[in-house]
Design a protein that fits this description.
The chain is built from 15 helices and 2 strands. With 354 residues, it is an all-alpha fold. It has one domain: Hypothetical protein af1432. A two-stranded antiparallel ribbon has the order 1-2. The longest helix is centred in the middle third of the chain and has 24 residues. The chain is globular, with a radius of gyration of 23 Å. The chain starts with a helix and ends in a 16-residue tail after the last helix.
Length: 354
């Protein structure tokens, strides 16, 4: 037996009956010969890690635009924290860790520069220009389906594609035949829950580090139930998910869910929609709107890019390009098109004589 077949056999022996088995995958859009070494979900994980969109996550904002401190989270470190939490839960529940990890690593590939402020601006611009809006989960799927691999996509399995699309709440439509109402596998549910556990807790940690809030301002119920340190809160919630989940679904207890919602409300009031965010959002909108309208008026810019979807309409191509920008690239691009370039400083004495 090849290593892949051996591992597929081990999965049937070790994983829970409600876990996704690699050998039972519904497959890819384009059939491929199986790898002799890796299962289909292991291949998907590797393809995501090696794609350009994944590398760009290291320079994309999580909460604080253009953070200068070395210890603030970026979209990449957020992704890794989600992956770690999700794998811990998946292993404890005997779910497929490889599928869980692949979904977790790919779930935020479509996120914009400047975090959720950037997503809100692109959503507004898309709607103002005839599209249905912009959602990073749908853009993540578009990246792995159409924009990576020189326009061929990564040809991921259906289970990974669905999980990427379904990781975010609030989706109420059908996209490419996939239902967005709820995750379609237990592994996808684990990633959705792990995403919330990760971002609520590390956003609080970063906000405290940035002195946007104090630990003493966090609601007492949150601290009392979840813990007074970052690691305690993560540990409490992971343990709670494991203890309350199984064949019936992936759940948090009512008490933990209530504390998370209280923490979410606190962060929205004080951080996501707080004074610092209100000050920065108009700047983000100005930068991205300027880039958006410049690209619409100068489509020749796309001629020099490595790849864009040539069959997409002009608005979609611009949205694709901007959403793929890192924070620092967006600022550099904005500087090139909107900030005057000074002439070289003339320091010759001969030109200064009367």
């Amino acid at each position: 037996m090849t290593p892949r077949i051996t591992w597929e056999t081990i999965e049937r022996q070790l994983l829970a009956d409600f876990a996704s088995k690699s050998a039972d995958s519904k497959g890819r859009k384009i059939d491929e010969p199986p790898c002799p070494i890796r299962t289909c979900y292991q291949r998907d994980r590797d393809r995501i890690i090696h794609c350009k969109a994944f590398r760009r996550l290291k320079y994309k904002t999580q909460v604080l635009p253009l953070p200068e401190g070395d210890h603030y989270r970026t979209r990449l470190t957020h992704t890794l924290e989600v992956s770690q939490i999700a794998r811990t839960i998946a292993r404890a529940l005997r779910l497929n860790e490889d599928l869980t990890e692949a979904i977790a690593l790919g779930h935020d590939l479509g996120h914009t520069p400047f975090g959720h402020m950037g997503e809100e601006v692109l959503d507004e611009l898309a709607k103002e220009n005839g599209l249905n809006g912009f959602r990073h989960a749908e853009q993540s799927l578009r990246i792995v389906d159409s924009l990576e691999g020189d326009g061929k996509g990564l040809n991921l399995t259906l289970e990974v594609r669905e999980g990427i699309l379904q990781h975010s709440k609030g989706q109420v439509d059908v996209h490419e035949g996939l239902k967005l109402y709820e995750p379609s596998t237990y592994e996808a549910w684990v990633v959705r829950v792990s995403d919330s556990i990760a971002y609520l807790n590390h956003d609080l940690d970063d906000a405290i580090r940035a002195r946007l809030v104090s630990i003493h301002e966090v609601p007492e119920e949150v601290i009392g139930l979840l813990g007074d340190t970052h690691s305690k809160r993560i540990g409490t919630l992971v343990t709670d998910v494991v203890n309350n989940s199984g064949k019936g679904g992936i759940y948090l207890s009512d008490a933990s869910l209530g504390s998370m919602e209280l923490l979410r409300s606190f962060l929205y009031e004080r951080v996501y929609l707080g004074p610092q965010a209100r000050k920065e959002r108009p700047k983000v909108k100005h930068v991205l709107s300027t880039i958006f309208h410049y690209l619409l008026s100068n489509p020749h810019v796309f001629d020099s890019l490595e790849f864009t979807d040539v069959e997409a309409n002009a608005i979609t191509r611009v949205i694709d390009f901007i959403s793929g920008m890192t924070d620092r690239y967006a600022m550099a691009f904005f500087g090139d098109i909107a900030v005057p370039t000074p002439w070289p400083l003339d320091i010759s004495l001969s030109d200064r004589t009367p």
